[in-house]
Hints:
Blueprint: H1 10-20, E1 28-37, E2 42-51, E3 54-59, E4 70-73, E5 78-81, E6 83-88, H2 96-104, E7 108-113, H3 116-121, H4 124-134, E8 140-145, H5 156-159, H6 162-170, E9 174-180, H7 183-187, H8 191-202, E10 206-209, H9 216-225, E11 229-230, H10 236-244, E12 248-252, H11 260-269, E13 278-281, H12 295-304, H13 309-314, H14 318-323, E14 341-344, E15 354-357, E16 360-364, E17 367-368, E18 402-406, E19 412-416, E20 432-438, E21 444-451, E22 459-462, E23 470-474, H15 477-489, E24 493-498, E25 501-507, H16 519-535, H17 543-549, E26 558-561, E27 564-567, E28 572-576, E29 578-579
Helix pairs in contact: 6-8, 10-11
Enzyme class: hydrolase
Pfam family, one: Amidohydro_1
GO molecular function, one term: adenine deaminase activity
Amino acid sequence: MLEQRYRWKNKQIREHIAVLDGKLAPTILLKNANYLNQVFRQWMRANIWIYEDRIVYVGERLPDNLKGCEVVDCSDECLVPGYIEPHAHPFQLYNPQSLASYASQFGTTTLINDNMALVLQLDKKKAFSLLGELRNHPVTMYWWCRFDAQTEVLDEEKYFSHGNIKSWLEHDAVLQGGELTGWPKLLDGDDMMLHWIQEAKRMRKQIEGHFPGASEKTLAKMMLFGADSDHEAMTGKDIYNRLLQGYMVSLRYSSIRPDLPFLLDEMKKMNITAYDKMMFNTDGSSASFYEQGLIDQMIRIAIEKGVPLIDAYNMGTINVARYYNIEYLHGNIATGRIANINFLEDKTNPTPKSVLAKGRWVKKDGIRCDMNDSIHWEEHGLKPLRLDWDLTSDDLQFSMPFGIQMENAVITKPYSISIDVSSDELPTSHDESFFMLVDKNGKWRINTILKGFTNRVSGLASSFSNTGDIILIGKSKNDMIKAFQRMKDIGGGIVLVENGEVLEEIPLTLAGVMSDATMETIIEKEKLLFSHLKELGYHFHDPIYSLLFFSSTHLPYIRITQEGIYDVMNKMILFPSIMR
């Protein structure tokens, strides 16, 4: 549990009342504000009193006591609530703090985060201590509770034990169970997962599904199991079926699935014009995808596609808050809410000029404000990766009869290997490469051939993966070892080597899976890596997700996992991992 049991202590609430009585002055007065009122579904004029992190009054009155109060004339601005991202994966090279700080500049002041990286990298005590420190950030962060690893991991019960799941569900920063990437196990009779869903429902917490391509019958079954929402609608028909079965539909615009414009067009064709059961999400996009914004960008797309203005804003604010039962804190500008407010120059431009998060200026007149939001990562167990073992030529033996072929950035299929893989280098005349997953503790490895990644990458090493184990790809065994050694020297990361020289690297000093750099730095490094990979023959759109999803068994068809090469459709290990 977090140290502070209630959002505001009794003493603080008494101070809020004292502001209304004139005994204390507000800290900020937003005077003559034209703001979006979602109760009346109108733009209205009011004076907004803020005391520290809370809105204490919205209406016609002005405070009697203005001693030390910052008065802001909002006559020429339009005010909307801070945006809410309900489906953040805050570990795609960036980390929860860097994502939150960056998101705030585009008006997203609340994030509901995946806990996967914390579960797999930290023990429960360290993870919860990090959640406690992140609570001090101006951006509000809530969390999910995962029920499965999204891959086949050794000792899964260590991470997803009943005790761990129960502790996460009971945590007051956790708003939902899921996402349910392991839902086929539920259909097959996994009563422990069903019990966890039951517990989440008992605690009045939501269950998020992950049902790409699900039939109407499957959607109905998952609703009976307890699912409340799904973000995997890829067509207008998908949206219709989810709405019909009672789901909250989360419309996606991400680096892997930039579906929103198409979905809105499909909705228009199908005459779906009710938006109260819809919200937006960016589904943990790669850093560079966020250059143009987060939820603000989705609101802009919706407005351009003809969604009524207020509905477009509601899908990024109040709809999310109502769904997660946090409307009393978030999603609207009203008395008693957390002071998360975006200041717009124009109603049709959702990217804010200024932003208040928890009553603090994080952006003012287009300039980023100092948030004093540094995190003591090592205290919470997120240290540079320290490997006490070396990769040798004996590890790079390849004799498997079939390999893995990339159909797109994230879908992989089996294929029969017909080339000679006995040499130390593969020619660049084809797109087949040596491919390994190695235990970060050096205990096991799995070796095969990867087709379709590139035809020229000489050596790539990455500690960024689904589980934090080491991915190696390349044409040259020597350059693969060189990339591994450099990745080891920098404490984890992604390293690209050509002809014995480091071509590009992204240090990931937080357990080898996240960077402690700013989002802006990560974006630039990621763009350089993408550019190099493209020059070397990578022709898909997101190599970061390729690395992440090589092990992800919620996607078809063949995956490389801790247990070995896994057949997703038949739920079986085809070739086990080898002890080193």
